[in-house]
Amino acid sequence: MTLSKITEILEATVIVRPADLEDLNIRSACSADLMSDVLYYHSIDSLLITGLTQINVIRTAEIAGTKAIVFVLNKKPDERTVELAGQKKIPLLSTPFCMYTASGKLYQAGLRSSLND
Amino acid sequence: MPLNIDGTIDGTFQLIGGNFTTAGEASTQLKLKLSELGVDETIIRRATIATFEAEMNVIIYAAAGWLHYYITSRSITIKIADMGPGIENIELAMQEGYSTAPDWVREMGWGAGMGLPNMKKNSDLFKIDSVVGEGTTVEMVINFP
């Protein structure tokens, strides 16, 4: 699923825009607020759906090979977090939906779990 | 395939407890180093996940610590030593889900009791020693394919 399709489904605003929003393909997703779960269970090239906006979420994404991050409930990260995501070329989105609904909408549209993907 | 590395490439990072802003920098720099050396992507991922978890543990629990890495043509060794509270029961700490992290750490998305199991899972050799009141040392080796 392309990141632009995900943006549309989640009615999301783009905080850090990748060069290739139209073409960036996301294979799977994980919803987590525990960073070790992201590191322990999930595969590379996935979308992270989270309620955490701290800077170490970007570090986790970089180490885990996460392709893009969606913040739920319209949460917006601070300037330093946005800056680091820009440097690391990790796209950031923010959706008005809660984690349950955001995950459900993407699952319904065919985006599967990255667990054991 | 062994990498074309003569001898040992090594480096050190100093880690400061409580500094969440720069937490993860040592791991990302190590990731960059391994990429430059042409190490296999799967190995890089394992090494950096293990290193990142160890780095976060120092930031969360200890006053300060050191991270040393040694890369040869056949493996990477990561050693982390901290001046922290130490671990009373290592066997318990190695169990998935066991954690002594305070609430503020959990609110930041850490302290779920998966750090040490995650380090072990991603290492070919994992050693941990701890003295209560002095600190903890972890040594991890990841072999190249």
Give a description of the structure.
- The complex is a heterodimer of chains A (117) and B (145).
- With 117 residues, chain A is of the alpha/beta class.
- Chain A contains 5 helices and 6 strands.
- Chain A has a single domain (3-113), classed as Udp-n-acetylmuramoylalanyl-d-glutamate--2,6- Diaminopimelate Ligase, Chain: A, domain 1 (3-Layer(aba) Sandwich), CATH 3.40.1390.
- A 6-stranded mixed β-sheet of chain A has the order 1-5-4-3-2-6.
- In chain A, strand 4, helix 4 (79-87) and strand 5 (92-94) form a beta-alpha-beta unit.
- In chain B, a hairpin with a 3-residue loop joins strand 4 and strand 5.
- Chain B has a 5-stranded antiparallel β-sheet with strand order 1-2-3-5-4, covered by helices on one side.
- In chain B, helix 2 packs antiparallel against helix 5.
- Chain B has 5 helices and 5 strands, in the order βααββαααββ.
- Chain B has a single domain, classed as 2-Layer Sandwich (Heat Shock Protein 90).
- The A-B interface holds A 33-37, 39-40, 44, 50, 52, 54-57, 59-60, 62-65, 80 and B 20-21, 23-25, 27-28, 31, 45, 48-49, 52-53, 56, 108-110, 112-115, 117-118, 121.
What layout of secondary structure does this protein have?
The complex is a heterodimer of chains A (117) and B (145).
Chain A: H1 3-9, E1 13-16, E2 28-31, H2 35-41, E3 46-50, H3 55-64, E4 68-71, H4 79-87, E5 92-94, H5 99-108, E6 112-113
Parallel strand pairs in A: 2-3, 2-6, 3-4, 4-5
Antiparallel strand pairs in A: 1-5
Helix pairs in contact in A: 2-3, 3-4
Chain B: E1 9-16, H1 25-36, H2 41-61, E2 64-71, E3 75-83, H3 90-93, H4 103-107, H5 115-122, E4 125-131, E5 135-143
Antiparallel strand pairs in B: 1-2, 2-3, 3-5, 4-5
Helix pairs in contact in B: 1-2, 2-5
Key terms:
heterodimer, A: about 120 residues, alpha/beta, Udp-n-acetylmuramoylalanyl-d-glutamate--2,6- Diaminopimelate Ligase, Chain: A, domain 1, 5 helices, about 35% helix, B: alpha+beta, five-stranded antiparallel beta sheet, 5 strands
